[in-house]
């Protein structure tokens, strides 16, 4: 109890709860310790962060993320377990949750359009599965991709996508656009009928486009494509999962010249 941050915050448990209720609608939910850790590492603005056991959360930080322990100590307020559980859709095993400010669309669009580009933009053409979209954002963050653009109706900032992305939406530019609005750059569209990826070098300014889980690349995206690229696949296998296709393609980019940041 001699931690001043903890004492000051514990004395006013209504503070974070009121802030949470006020901000929850327009904010990005960071669900669990790892999502908060990643978001803080990549510069997210976090106006409120709560823990059912602040000491346990900071011990986890000391063990797994000492680089952000101090920042988390300044952010995290302890609330009773029941209060925490009432504020989140589903309690996380780490008992940690936070709200972050979504980066401005204008800022993300500027990052996506900036040239010369030093790492590709991943385009998901009308993706349907929220978990796939989250996994792709995590991959893009890991490989230092410029960003992830989705076309179609799926919201790439949907809470389930953010959960799948483990807080890494803040490490890359994430936006929804139409095919006509895609940023400049040669489009390498992934399709089993394309040219074998092993014979190609993917340039840093590429848009790497992937089709929908249901129906593959749309006619609009095909019309915009400069190259169709195939991942090696044995006959009789129809296709790979969307996120694993992105993983193989980003790996190929990194292994043939591009490099994770
Ligand atoms: C699950 S697949 C789509 C399957 C869909 N039923 C179809 O008709 O194409 C999702 C996306 O992953 C990429 N993909 C999957 N397997 C691939 C392969 N062997 N070569 C190139 N791209 C592939 C493509 O971009 C594809 O549109």
UniProtKB/TrEMBL annotation:
GO terms for MF: RNA binding; RNA methyltransferase activity
Keyword Methyltransferase: yes
One GO BP: methylation
SUPFAM superfamilies linked: alpha/beta knot
Transferase among keywords: yes
CDD domains tied to this protein: SpoU-like_family
Pfam families xrefs: SpoU_methylase (PF00588)
InterPro entries registered for this protein in UniProt: Alpha/beta_knot_MTases, rRNA_Methyltransferase, SpoU_MeTrfase, tRNA_m1G_MTases_N
Keywords linked to the UniProt accession: Methyltransferase, Transferase
Source organism superkingdom: Bacteria
tRNA/rRNA methyltransferase SpoU type domain ranges (all copies): 121-251
Protein name: rRNA methyltransferase
């Amino acid at each position: 109890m001699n931690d001043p941050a903890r004492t000051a915050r514990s004395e006013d448990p209504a503070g974070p709860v009121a802030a949470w209720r006020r901000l929850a609608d327009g904010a990005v939910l960071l669900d669990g310790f790892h999502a908060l850790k990643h978001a803080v590492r990549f510069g997210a603005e976090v106006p409120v962060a709560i823990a059912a056991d602040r000491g346990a959360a900071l011990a986890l930080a000391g063990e797994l993320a000492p680089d952000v322990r101090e920042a988390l100590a300044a952010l995290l307020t302890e609330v009773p377990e029941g209060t925490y559980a009432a504020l989140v859709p589903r309690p996380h095993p780490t008992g940690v949750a936070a709200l972050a400010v979504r980066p401005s669309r204008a800022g993300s669009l500027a990052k996506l359009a900036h040239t010369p580009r030093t790492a590709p933009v991943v385009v998901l053409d009308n993706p349907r599965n929220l978990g796939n979209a989250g996994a792709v954002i995590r991959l893009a963050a890991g490989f230092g991709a410029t960003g992830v653009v989705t076309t179609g109706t799926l919201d790439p900032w949907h809470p389930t996508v953010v959960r799948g992305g483990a807080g890494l939406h803040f490490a890359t530019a994430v936006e929804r656009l139409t095919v006509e609005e895609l940023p400049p750059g040669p489009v390498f569209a992934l399709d089993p009928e394309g040219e074998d990826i092993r014979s190609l070098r993917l340039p840093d300014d590429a848009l790497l486009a992937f089709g929908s889980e249901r129906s593959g690349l749309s006619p609009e995206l095909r019309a915009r494509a400069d190259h169709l690229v195939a991942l090696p696949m044995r006959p009789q296998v129809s296709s790979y999962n969307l996120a694993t296709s992105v993983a193989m393609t980003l790996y190929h980019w990194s292994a043939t010249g591009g490099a994770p940041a």
